[in-house]
Design brief:
two-stranded antiparallel sheet; single chain; mainly alpha
């Protein structure tokens, strides 16, 4: 503000220039403190522009309830004056801090000349140790998203904000919070992002119904020490037979090292793991070939537990429709297993499948089993 006043009064006489500077440069610290507070209020109220009355109302609130300086009473009295010499809001407006963006029905609407001004002032307001808790408490509010990102980029005191976001995502807060968390990760150093993601994985462990944002997969740490962590989580989830957790750790561990993760899953998978657990594994990135032993366990488990028609549907979806000849050949091999080893179950599953699926899926199944059809017909 002082720089603007010096520029505007550069052509005035020495006495006039000094009068302007004295009048408009009064309370520089108080003005800056208020503008920082005011920038935050614009985020809270989702205001893209404002009028003088709005500025005055916020000034009265700030100087009467938040500002602790000795000049507060004098400033508050001046806010009711039409004279710029005593009204701090008029001084701010006349100094050029705001620009005119519209004029309707005689009312002038103002804004900061650039979004960055608003961001920098609001970030500075919350950078004070006594106020950062207020920002943390407001993170889940949608209007604060833009401000949170600016704070992450500009403030060195961002760790409490990151930790709060981790907690909110782990508690399945509003969907926009998960999106905000991923946007925050993009603005952190690689070490900070990896640490935040590991905290989230720890905080969400055991919460099988929680859907983690897919964006976190881009910030998973690697290396032997971290791999041991992911291997343990995948192993425990398979042993615990929690299908949703199995899928989560299968996806995560596959992103870290798909070869090692696949070895772990294939060594642990048996038909006794349970149909649901095996089904989640079959639908995970750890199964890319129909010849995977996990698929074999899934087929056996599915027919043992009376889910043969569902097994057929999954095999068609994953390995047959639009896939390579090799995948189609392996699919047919599984059907031969069904027919050859479990004729009655296979035929019954075929009938259930054909009643439940759409015509396109049924046609695919008939195509795949063309040479095997007599065996099914015999048991139909």
């Amino acid at each position: 503000m002082e720089d603007l006043d010096k520029y505007k009064s550069r052509d005035a006489s020495q006495s006039d220039r000094q009068a302007i500077l004295n009048r408009r440069a009064a309370y520089p610290e108080e003005k800056y403190s208020f503008l920082s507070y005011f920038a935050v209020k614009l985020y809270e109220c989702e205001k893209s522009f404002f009028d003088e009355e709005f500025v005055t109302e916020r000034a009265k609130t700030f100087f009467s309830s938040e500002f602790e300086g000795s000049s507060a009473d004098e400033i508050i009295r001046g806010l009711d004056s039409d004279e710029a010499a005593s009204n701090i809001v008029k001084q701010i407006i006349f100094s050029g801090i705001f620009v005119l963006v519209d004029k309707r029905d005689g009312v002038r609407y103002l804004d900061f000349p650039h979004r960055k001004f608003r961001e920098a002032l609001a970030v500075d307001y919350f950078s004070h140790t006594s106020r950062i808790d207020r920002l943390v408490a407001s993170i889940s509010k949608k209007p604060y998203a833009e401000l949170v990102l600016a704070f992450i980029e500009q403030s060195m005191q961002r760790q409490p904000v990151i930790d709060k976001l981790v907690k909110l995502v782990a508690e399945a807060a509003a969907p926009h919070v998960a999106v905000l968390f991923v946007d925050v990760l993009k603005r952190l150093s690689s070490d900070e992002a990896e640490q935040a993601v590991m905290k989230l994985l720890d905080a969400s462990d055991g919460k099988s119904t929680l859907q983690l944002p897919a964006g976190v997969l881009s910030y998973l740490p690697s290396g032997p020490s971290h791999w041991r962590y992911f291997r343990e989580k995948l192993t425990n989830s398979i042993a615990g037979r929690d299908g949703l957790l199995v899928h989560r750790w299968a996806v995560v561990s596959a992103k870290v090292d798909i070869s090692l993760a696949t070895d772990v899953a294939e060594n642990l998978a048996t038909s006794d793991c349970g149909f649901v657990t095996l089904r989640y594994l079959v639908h995970s990135p750890l199964v890319v070939e129909a010849s995977s032993p996990i698929v074999g366990c899934y087929v056996v488990s599915g027919f043992q537990e009376g889910n043969g028609s569902l097994v057929l549907a999954d095999l068609i979806k994953i390995f047959y429709a639009g896939k390579s000849l090799e995948a189609k050949g392996q699919f047919k091999a599984w059907l031969r297993f069904v027919v050859g080893e479990r004729n009655e179950l296979g035929a019954d599953s075929m009938r259930k499948f054909c009643r439940a699926r759409d015509d396109e899926d049924v046609e695919r199944l008939l195509e795949a089993t063309r040479e095997l059809r007599p065996a099914f017909v015999a048991h139909a």
